[in-house]
UniProtKB/TrEMBL annotation, chain A:
InterPro entries: Bact_solute-bd_prot1, SBP. This is Extracellular solute-binding protein. It comes from Streptomyces gobitricini. It comes from the Bacteria. The lineage of its organism: Bacteria, Bacillati, Actinomycetota, Actinomycetes, Kitasatosporales.
From TrEMBL, chain B:
This is Sugar ABC transporter permease. The keyword Transmembrane applies. Belongs to the binding-protein-dependent transport system permease family. Residues 17-33 have a biased composition (Low complexity).
TrEMBL record, chain C:
InterPro entries: MetI-like, MetI-like_sf. The keyword Membrane applies. This is Carbohydrate ABC transporter permease. Residues 77-269 form the ABC transmembrane type-1 domain. Belongs to the binding-protein-dependent transport system permease family.
Length: 429, 333, 284
């Protein structure tokens, strides 16, 4: 290719320099904040979440209710599926233009706190704009990190074993609270032998389940700033899993990958799957059988290591309207009417006022309510371990590397090494 | 005007002889003093180019330069970028997943691009004949490209390539090989991705068709009089005459293949995974995972510029090669 | 066509149709699967091996009439249509101007600009996303369609500039030489001679632009903040749940409905592809 020599090259540099200057060189931290104030004292706040159109319809209804009671506050909505939500959120927050208030989860609290994205709502709570009383089962502590109030829970959920009830009944298995891993494995083997499908769908890659297993042994998946277990721990966990995949106790990972995004239980590859209790609804819409919830197996016959998880509402530190945002969150977590509209869409309502305002009538939601009530009654619930920044990345790596291992693409030793390498990069430890 | 074309065309029945360097050499001044002509051309050139130049300066150059800067920094999207020199690049070469992504991408480019172009050209030649129902076929063959990157494509593809579905059955019947479905198998899923790409041959096909329409019929008639068979007509007339378009398709399809993202991401799963056991972890997929899911935009930018260098090299080779096989009209005098 | 028919001609015609039908079967099988899928109940779609459902349902389509997330489906279509048509106009004008300059005018610095343009094709867009977002934010254009259209009017789509340029370079040079001798300027040559002759390339570009704009997901996702402004491609994703689980039936039905405008656009314009050189207006 011909070039016209130095003149053009210099011109190019000038051009590049000019647009660099226009950009302000760095992209970070040059936003103008979000939201706006009208001349008549009306304030507009932006609210974003992830979810489907069904959730959006419910939330729109709650917002209409809120705007009726707070005529000076207008709420603009924005929502996407989970992964797209975070892509957009990252871009907006990086550009300094995040939504004023948004749906959040435990794995992101510390991450976005470290990046100065989240507003400490403590001040608003102290000022009386946001009530932090009346939460169930200690949930008010759930969004706290290092004494800062970074998120307010809207609903609770917990890990559970989702089972195909028809298959379990035919195999003559009735899981009871406190059953042990030994009993669990025997049950899975029996299903494999008698029901023509695997027992479990692939528990070895579920980070939140391994967390429970570790907690039963006095450890945890995460500490405040790193991993709470050793290479030897994980080698044990995955060696057992590998044998289980080979013997058909766990479903063939290739088959599971093939029917994704359908779950292995609804796809009739496995009879049970560890997941969050409020995801049960998906199985009913995907599969033809009856699905139920079974307790988490234990090591000592008592301790499950469980805690309540939750979706939260967080505010962004750049919001120009912290007070209005706090009032909005307060309304969404306490107002009984909101609970009647939302149902169990984001988990069992977090506050007693909302919990009592809504009684589920359908089979699936009744089961979820009963399951969580039983957790409270048996007293197995423990406080949650805080997640370090990068926990979301470590979780994704855990799932992926476990799948590599199960498919035989890596030996257990290689898989453990790969996971630790990636986790250390992600957690910066 | 029309007569000029016809005269010119019939006057040169053979293929235009040779091509020029890229881009075409300025036309030789035939009238007026050379300086006045070139000054006028400069003015006209920059006037015609002004939207592009404005767009480049305003929208493209800045972000490109910014990403080049990020490539040498530790940039997590939130804190100000911190200069770390070449560390992103050394990290990259030491990263086994990066190497996997390079391998996967090269396989994909080497297998997928020629197949797709061959399908596009073959079907375009088929459709370039005046036959009944031609318009219907053209629309039908283009339909896959319309469905494009929508999520439903992923569902369809899984349905077609899964265990006991049509492809699996055909494979067992024809070759006696039982893979048990392609989309869950790390050794096979890449081929289902290639199949998805080849299936969407509509875009280059339409470009080929448009190119074929520009070939003057007189050339074929003259060749037929000379007794040239279909193969010779294709080789001596069609191919040289559509070579600018062929060059365009080869270049752009290659560039796009290196940058393939959407279908790999949709087909391969979600949330930091691109296929079982990273089997469809194409380059941009990994770049995306690092940049947006792992918040390592510095690393992702370094990856992007590495890709730019590699594809730039391929592009330069293609441009260099075109003087041997691409025939532009201005040389045919 | 002449009325002369010979056995050879019949054989050729038969072979042609057989060949076309064979390609058609392979190409359309997945499309037919999608159509069949849109009439299946939700739990029969993923992993289903059947082409058509045993008991076809129209629920998936009927649900669309209720709108998505309180927004009528027509809103999404209107928005997408506006953006797609706006993009077509922008690309046709701005890219053909640049293409003409590259193909037909010998201005100083052309090689450098051309190399820069090809360079813009080589960088994956993900790394440009954030700097571009910051840029539009500084221009206070977030949540406007300008973010999505501006580039189209400023010829940032190098693909189309290059495509049109390749076609213009295929046109006989004698045309503009003659026009120049008649005293025509570049604008006149561009408008009256080159553009009409490049109709196949322009139509092709129009079709691609329309489809790209229609299917664009990343741009609308990042830049549009209100559901009322969303496009069809964003609306489709509203069927996807928090767990990545979707209401596949409605999604497939909607993606088929979303296909119709694109198909109509293609059908309306493809006939101009049929007769390129032969009849395209040489009236200049």
């Amino acid at each position: 290719m011909r070039t016209n020599g130095t003149v053009d090259r210099r011109g190019l540099l000038k051009v590049a320099g000019g647009s660099m200057a226009a950009l302000g060189l760095t992209a970070a931290g040059c936003g103008s904040g979000s939201g706006s104030g009208g001349g008549d004292g009306t304030v507009t706040i932006r609210y974003a979440w992830w979810g489907s159109d069904d959730r959006a319809k419910r939330i729109n209804e709650t917002i209409r209710l809120f705007e009726k009671k707070h005529p000076k506050i207008k709420v603009k909505t924005d929502f996407q599926p989970y992964l797209d939500f975070w892509k957009k959120f990252n871009t907006q927050a990086s550009g300094g233009n995040p939504p004023d208030v948004f749906q959040n989860a435990i794995g992101f609290l510390r991450k976005y706190d470290e990046k100065n994205v989240l507003l400490d709502l403590r001040q608003q709570a102290d000022a009386g704009n946001l009530r932090m009383r009346g939460f169930r089962a200690g949930l008010e502590k759930f969004g706290e990190v290092d004494g800062k109030l970074l998120g307010v829970p809207v609903g609770s959920n917990s890990m559970a074993l989702v089972i195909d009830r028809a298959v379990f009944a035919k195999a003559g298995i009735t899981p009871r609270p406190g059953w042990t891993w030994g009993e669990f494995n025997a049950a899975m083997t029996k299903i494999r032998d008698t029901q023509g499908r695997a027992g479990d769908s692939g528990l070895y890659g579920v980070m939140y389940l391994y967390d429970l297993h570790l907690r039963q042994h006095g450890k945890a998946f995460f500490t405040k700033d790193g991993l709470g277990f050793t290479e030897a721990d994980l080698t044990d966990w995955w060696t057992t899993a590998r044998a289980g995949v080979r013997s058909g106790i766990h479903a063939d990972p290739k088959k599971v990958a093939q029917i994704k995004p359908k779950s292995a239980v609804a796809g009739e590859l496995a009879a049970a799957e560890f997941t969050w209790d409020n995801f049960t609804i998906r199985y009913t819409s995907e599969g033809k059988s009856q699905y139920g919830l079974a307790p988490i197996p234990t090591t000592d016959g008592k301790r499950t290591g469980q805690y309540l998880g939750s979706l939260m509402l967080s505010a962004s530190r750049r919001t120009r309207h912290p007070e209005e945002v706090a009032r909005f969150i307060d309304f969404m977590v306490h107002d009984p009417e909101v609970a009647k509209i939302m149902g169990y869409d984001r988990g069992v309502p977090a506050t007693t006022a909302q919990y009592e305002a809504f009684t589920p009538t359908d089979e699936v939601n009744k089961q979820i309510a009963a399951y969580e009530q039983q957790l409270v009654d048996t007293g197995v619930l423990e406080p949650i371990t805080p997640h370090p920044a990068g926990a979301d990345v470590a979780e994704a790596a855990f799932l992926r590397v476990a799948e590599d291992m199960a498919m035989g693409k890596r030996s257990v030793a290689e898989a453990v090494e790969q996971f630790f390498t990636e986790a250390k990069t992600a957690l910066g430890s | 005007m029309g007569s000029t074309v016809t005269q010119h065309r019939t006057a040169s029945p053979g293929p235009p002889a040779k091509a020029t360097a890229e881009p075409p050499a300025p036309p030789v001044a035939t009238t007026g003093p050379r300086t006045r002509r070139s000054r006028r051309d400069n003015l006209a050139g920059y006037l015609f180019m002004s939207p592009w130049i404005a767009g480049f300066l305003l929208l493209t150059a800045g972000p490109m330069v910014a990403s080049l800067y990020f490539a040498f920094t530790d940039y997590n999207l939130f804190d100000a970028p911190r200069w770390i020199g070449l560390k992103n690049f050394t990290d990259m070469f030491a990263d086994p997943r990066w190497r996997t992504s390079v391998e996967v991408t090269l396989w994909y480019v080497v297998i997928g691009t020629p197949l797709k172009l061959a399908a596009a050209l073959g079907v375009a030649l088929l459709l370039n004949q005046k036959r009944r129902g031609q318009a219907f076929y053209r629309a039908a063959f283009y339909a896959p490209s319309l469905i494009g990157a929508s999520v439903s494509v992923a569902i369809v593809w899984k349905a077609i390539f899964s265990d006991d579905a049509i492809v699996d059955r055909a494979q067992r019947a024809l070759f006696g090989v039982d893979v048990g479905g392609w989309t869950g198998d790390p050794d096979w899923i890449l081929y289902s991705l290639v199949a998805l790409t080849v299936w969407q041959f509509g875009a280059p096909m339409v470009i080929f068709l448009a190119g074929l329409k520009q070939v003057p019929r007189e050339l074929y008639e003259a060749a037929e009089v000379d007794g040239a068979g279909p193969w010779r007509r294709f080789w001596n007339i069609t191919l040289p005459m559509i070579s600018p378009v062929l060059f365009f398709n080869v270049l752009l399809e290659t560039i796009h293949s290196f940058q393939i993202f959407g279908s790999a991401y949709i087909l391969g799963g979600q949330g930091g995974t691109c296929g079982p056991a990273d089997a469809t972890l194409v380059y941009t997929c990994y770049l995306y995972v690092q940049g947006f899911e792992n918040s390592r935009m510095g690393f992702a930018s370094a990856m992007a510029w590495m890709l730019l260098l590699a594809v730039g090299l391929v592009t330069a080779v293609l441009f260099w090669s075109q003087r041997r096989w691409v025939h532009y009209e201005e040389a045919a005098r | 066509m002449s009325a002369v028919t010979s056995p050879r001609r019949h054989a050729g015609s038969l072979a042609w149709h057989l060949g076309s039908l064979a390609v058609l079967a392979v190409v359309l099988y997945p499309v037919v699967w999608v159509i069949g899928g849109s009439f299946k109940p939700n739990d029969e779609i993923v992993g289903s091996l059947e082409l058509f459902p045993a008991n076809p349902l129209t629920d998936n389509y009927r649900r669309l009439a209720d709108g998505i997330a309180d927004i009528p489906v027509s809103t999404f279509f209107g928005n997408s249509l506006f953006l797609a048509l706006g993009s077509v106009v922008g690309v046709l004008v701005s890219c053909s101007l640049a293409a003409y300059a590259f193909a037909r005018i010998g201005f100083a610095g052309r090689s450098l600009l051309f190399a820069l343009m090809i360079g813009t094709l080589l960088l994956p867009y993900h790394v440009l996303l954030i700097p571009q977002y910051v840029l539009f934010q500084k221009l206070e254009l977030i949540n406007t369609y300008t973010t999505l259209l501006l580039g189209k009017y400023l010829a940032t789509d190098a693909f189309f500039v290059f495509l049109m340029m390749q076609f213009m370079r295929g046109l006989p040079k004698e045309l503009d030489e003659a026009a120049r001798l008649d005293g025509c300027g570049h604008l006149r040559i561009y408008w009256s001679i080159v553009l009409p002759l490049c109709r196949p390339a322009l139509i092709t570009s129009a079709i691609f632009t329309f489809i790209n704009a229609w299917n664009d997901f990343m741009g609308p996702l990042i830049y549009l903040n209100e559901p009322d402004k969303y496009t069809v491609s964003l609306g489709l994703k509203m069927f996807v749940d928090q767990d990545g689980i979707a209401n596949y039936g409605s999604m497939i039905a909607m993606s088929l409905v979303a296909l119709l405008p694109v198909l109509l656009f293609f059908l309306a314009f493809q006939r101009y592809l049929i007769d390129g050189m032969a009849t395209s207006g040489l009236k200049g």
